[in-house]
Design goal:
Number of helices: 20
Number of strands: 18
CATH class of the largest domain: Alpha Beta
Radius of gyration: 30 Å
Structural class: alpha+beta
Family: Belongs to the UvrC family.
CATH topology of the largest domain: Nucleotidyltransferase, domain 5
Function: The UvrABC repair system catalyzes the recognition and processing of DNA lesions. UvrC both incises the 5' and 3' sides of the lesion. The N-terminal half is responsible for the 3' incision and the C-terminal half is responsible for the 5' incision.
Organism: Methylovulum psychrotolerans
Domain GIY-YIG: 21-99
GO molecular function: DNA binding; excinuclease ABC activity
Largest sheet: 7 strands, mixed
Strand content: 15-25%
């Protein structure tokens, strides 16, 4: 769309004249019809009108309103509904002038399966499997740390059912004392159930009750002269006390989150501490995207509204600042959670200590983030200088190719901006229809497919397009862009130097016979190495996934009568091709849908492939 012209100026007077006084949300669009701001209001007419009154609109709001060419409104029943809808729209569209939370991952849980000998493992996503879920944890790292502790305290198995069902001897975990090997019958069902019950008590925050049970077990073993068993209980109690001392919050028994926000230099950090059943499960730092400078209280309110949109909400939130609309926010959160939610900005005693710890962590995290941002900005400045760019580059893309002797070729495209890697914009391309091993054709196809999508408006154009390779790859990329009539993107080939050592890379530019001379050790070269290595990693990962999938499919696809659903079921039940190859005809027949003749064909496929 063309830039805004005088004829496109928004007629605010006519719009406001007919605007409703009901609650709802309003969405503001610029001259390119891009959504730049979403807001909510108890009275839409009064709220939107305030933007056009010079004595009420702030200077920043006036700058934003100068770009507005269209406003849409959506009416809701209550202001609480408007707040919820506002959060949904902000998370979906990420408007330029709103405070936006970028992280949208689901929380990880610890999952204890519903099985005769249950497994315990990390789980993320929908809770569809029968069993018990404990958490949520702030990150997979925190959940994995808890799993490691549990292995040392109560050796419940962590292997998948497909592995468990096909074991014939104990695994390494049993040898190092972290599993009691129920797969081969080295522990009774009753003893294993005791370990599972202890695990549940620990994860439910019943550490005190658990210690009391273990003390009774120790005393009973000692009275029965089973001193080795008593010593084992004693050691278990000591380890458990050490763990609980580190994670237990004095005076807390329920679920709550502690949230602290700090702002500086148009950036913000929100630190979240998770407390469940009186135990501190970990913490995580978030960096909301700010369109402008905002007060910490406003950032924290916007963060909370978006953060808990699709996540479990504890009964209480302890916050570092009093929020502008605490009552409205608690109403929305309570409706979401189906239970009362309290927001506490002022706390004392042990809670005040934890809140101060969260604030300190937020300050340190933001300082580190700003230092990295300044360092990255310096690398972009160096890159501009080394490549003699007329303006500072804003967006970089890099392509790489990975294959094995020309098979299963995958191209990767990674994206960097002035904040670092933009992983949501990464893309992979499965390359088809070329001669195996022709990297030039692969680069050409990948670049063509990527920039066709650019022309369709799926993503912005990069300022610099890096290609991992030499002159041939650069020419292939240049040809692909010329065919699409795209001539405003700088193409730079990143070729390995004579000794193939990091730091000795040669930069190949279109139309230049010799590589570009660059300053040794320049920080811009470090940025090039970073994006090239990231493209290489992303390409190899994609190639390995494609190659592994092809191997699984090719080995089973040749069996008559074995369709994709049954192939998938076999792989799942036996844990992979190796498990299928080791299975007998009777074991194969036990799978639903696998008849005796089909089981015989599968068995012969793996045992008589040489014709003997």
């Amino acid at each position: 769309m063309e830039p805004t012209t005088p004829s496109q100026v928004f007629d605010s007077a006519s719009f406001l004249k007919n605007l409703t006084t009901l609650p709802g949300i309003y969405k503001m669009f610029n001259g390119q019809d891009e959504l730049i701001y979403v807001g909510k209001a108890k009275n839409l007419k009064n709220r939107v009108s305030s933007y056009y009154k010079n004595n009420q609109a702030s200077p920043k709001q006036q700058v934003m309103m100068a770009k507005v060419c269209r406003i849409e409104v959506t009416v809701t029943h209550t202001e609480s509904e408007a707040l919820l809808l506002e959060c949904q729209q902000i998370k979906r569209h990420k408007p330029r002038y709103n405070i936006c939370l970028r992280d949208d991952k689901s929380f990880p849980y610890i999952y204890l399966s519903d099985h005769a000998f249950p497994l315990i493992t990390l789980h993320r996503g929908a809770k569809k499997k029968a069993g018990h879920y404990f958490g949520p944890y702030p990150s997979s790292t925190a959940a994995k740390e808890s799993l490691k502790l549990l292995q040392k305290l109560f050796p419940v198995r962590q292997c998948e059912d497909s592995v468990y069902n096909n074991r014939t001897r104990p695994c390494l975990q049993h040898q190092i004392g972290r599993c009691t090997a129920p797969c081969v019958g080295l522990i009774s069902a009753a003893d294993y159930a005791t370990d599972v019950a202890h695990t549940k008590l620990f994860l439910d925050g019943q550490g005190g009750l658990l210690i009391e049970q273990l003390i009774r077990n120790m005393e009973q073993a000692s009275a029965a002269l089973e001193f080795e068993q008593a010593a084992a209980h004693r050691d278990q109690i000591a380890r458990l006390r050490t763990v609980l001392e580190k994670s237990h919050i004095q005076g807390e028994k329920g679920n709550l989150d502690i949230l602290a926000c700090v702002t500086q230099a148009n950036s913000a950090c929100v630190q979240v501490f998770f407390i469940r059943n009186g135990q501190q499960l970990g913490n995580k730092a978030y960096f909301p995207s700010l369109g402008d400078e905002h007060e910490a209280s406003a950032v924290l309110q916007a963060f909370i509204a978006q953060y808990y949109l699709n996540k479990p909400i504890p009964a209480e939130l302890i916050v570092s600042h009093a929020l502008p609309e605490t009552e409205l926010l608690t109403e929305m959160l309570g409706h979401q959670a189906q239970h009362a939610v309290t927001i506490s900005p002022r706390v004392r005693g042990e809670r005040a200590k934890w809140l101060q710890m969260a604030i300190t962590n937020a300050e340190l995290s933001l300082a580190a983030k700003l230092a990295d941002k300044q360092s990255l900005h310096g690398r972009f400045l160096s890159l501009q200088q080394q490549l003699r760019c007329p303006t500072l580059p804003q967006r970089l893309e890099c392509f790489d190719i990975s294959h094995t002797q020309g098979e299963q070729t995958v191209a990767s495209c990674v994206v960097f901006d002035q904040n670092g890697p933009v992983k949501s914009a990464y893309r992979r391309f499965n390359i088809e229809g070329i001669t195996g091993g022709d990297d030039y054709a692969a680069i050409g196809q990948a670049v063509s497919r990527r920039f066709k999508r650019l022309q369709q408006g799926e993503h912005p154009a990069p300022d610099i397009l890096f290609i991992d390779g030499g002159k041939g790859q650069v020419k292939a990329a240049q040809k692909a862009l010329e065919e699409l009539a795209i001539n405003n993107v700088m193409i730079v080939g990143v070729a390995k130097g004579p000794d193939r050592k990091p730091g000795m890379e040669q930069l190949i530019l279109v139309g230049q016979e010799h590589p570009l001379d660059i300053t040794a050790g320049a920080s811009g070269l470090l940025l090039i190495q970073h994006i090239r290595d990231e493209a290489h990693r992303f390409a190899i990962t994609g190639h390995r996934q494609r190659r592994g999938k092809a191997k699984k499919q090719s080995s089973l696809e040749g069996i008559a009568g074995l369709g994709p659903k049954r192939r998938q079921q076999l792989l799942k039940q036996f844990g992979g091709l190796q498990g299928i190859a080791q299975a007998g005809v009777d074991a194969l027949c036990s799978i639903d849908g696998i008849s005796q003749p089909l089981a015989q064909r599968i068995y012969e496929h793996f045992h008589h492939q040489d014709g003997n």
